[in-house]
Amino acid sequence: MKSMDLSKQRAADSALKLVRAGQVVGLGTGSTAKFAIEGLGKMVREGLAVKGVPTSIATERLATELGIPLLDLNEAETIDITVDGADEVDPDFNMIKGGGGALTREKLVALASTKRVILVDESKLVQKLGISRLLPVEVLPFSWKMSARLLTELGCTAKLRLQGEKPFVTDNGNHILDCQFGVIEDPVALEKGIKLLPGVIDSGLFIGIADTLVIGFDDRVEIRERSA
Fold first, then answer.
1. Are 53 and 105 in contact (CB under 8 A)?
2. What element of type H or E holds 188?
């Protein structure tokens, strides 16, 4: 296993120690969350009684293969704990997510959760958001060019995400604009500004959402709690 994968595995194993019998667990999307879902599947096979709420069709498929009983968000109403990954995390626990295109469902599941646990390897820790990642924004296909123009007016270069030669389509049937803002000095204000734009569903800025960071390093796991 690669060093980075070992770090993700360590983080996932530590995060799963926070899961209790009888809980409803939000299941994230992406390479890091996959380690946690696989670990949870093993715990379920060993007798742990939990139910999962998947944040994507891919996660739903994986959880089903692993035998994790599932609910959708409308059935769950509230979620005890969500375990997910992130593309970037700043010192205030603000995040960029959505590299896999599941940002809207990930955010909804996180906001419905009592506790939000984010798994990352150390490469995802940044001093300011936007240093290493583009910001994904989910938009309506009907008006994606208008949304791109309006996002550009906020100070970015917005590019339609492609899958092969065709536009990438989210699980919600929408498109993704990957936005190059550079260093994001005020992520709180930017998130609000993006949300007000016509045709925008949501952005990959996750502000004030992460409660607990579980960080996998080469030689250890570190758990950090967001200050109140």
1. no
2. helix 187-195
Work out the mean pLDDT of the chain and round it to a whole number: 96
Domains of the chain: 3-125+207-225 (3.40.50.1360), 135-203 (3.30.70.260)
DSSP state of 11: H
Residues 206/95, Cβ–Cβ less than 8 Å: yes
Q: Which residues are catalytic?
A: 106
pLDDT for 4? 78
Two structure tokens written together for 177:
């604009």
- Which residues of the chain, if any, have pLDDT below 70? 1, 228
Using one digit for the tens of pLDDT, what is the confidence trace for 83-102? 999 999 999 999 999 999 99
Of 101, 59, 36, 82, the residue nearest 211 (C-alpha): 82
C-alpha span between 107 and 79 (Å, rounded): 13
> Of 193, 55, 208, 210, which Cα lies nearest the Cα of 137?
193
Contacts of 104 (CB under 8 A, 6+ apart): 138, 170, 172, 174, 201, 202
Q: To the nearest 10°, the Cα dihedral for 199, 71, 40, 25? A: 70
Eight-class DSSP state of 56: S
